User: Which sequence fits this backbone?
């Protein structure tokens, strides 16, 4: 995977749209969303046999998505090299929402990405996550933004 590939699929305009969608989403629930895209794993990670799912867990930790008052962080992680999407929910959310629901959203996103519609696939995924979180985690009167809404491009 060429190191510049992510720029073609996620130009700044697309990243800005994703950030705005996350901002709108978080007004509707008590969760905190982060979106991260990674072009490829570092050679050492590949050599160790690190899977995209394991890498998503590392990114979840590195971005401190677990560091919210209600343990309500959710990571949408896209590995371009592996063509995989993983959604990782913090323990507060995982108690109420089964991983199978996150996996269904990730699969739908992957199908849009296969059509090279990265913006639409991401926005649809955010909409579905928003609906799910609004059902289980309605916003409190005080609904602070605990994590940045800016998408992250993970680089090694």
Assistant:
């Amino acid at each position: 995977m060429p190191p510049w590939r992510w720029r073609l699929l996620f130009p700044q305009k697309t990243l800005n749209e994703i950030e705005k969608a996350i901002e709108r989403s978080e007004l509707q629930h008590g969760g905190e969303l982060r979106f991260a895209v990674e072009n490829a794993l570092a050679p050492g990670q590949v050599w160790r046999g690190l899977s995209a799912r394991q890498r998503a867990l590392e990114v979840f930790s590195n971005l401190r998505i677990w560091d919210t008052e209600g343990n309500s962080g959710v990571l949408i992680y896209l590995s371009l090299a592996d063509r995989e999407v993983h959604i990782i929910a913090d323990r507060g959310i995982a108690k109420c929402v089964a991983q199978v629901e996150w996996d269904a959203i990730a699969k739908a996103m992957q199908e849009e990405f296969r059509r090279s519609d990265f913006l639409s696939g991401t926005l649809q995924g955010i909409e579905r996550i928003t609906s799910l979180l609004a059902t289980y985690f309605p916003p409190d009167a005080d609904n602070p933004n605990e994590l940045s809404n800016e998408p992250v491009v993970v680089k090694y």
User: Anything to note?
Assistant: The mean pLDDT is 91. The radius of gyration is 15 Å. The chain is about 50% helix and 15% strand.
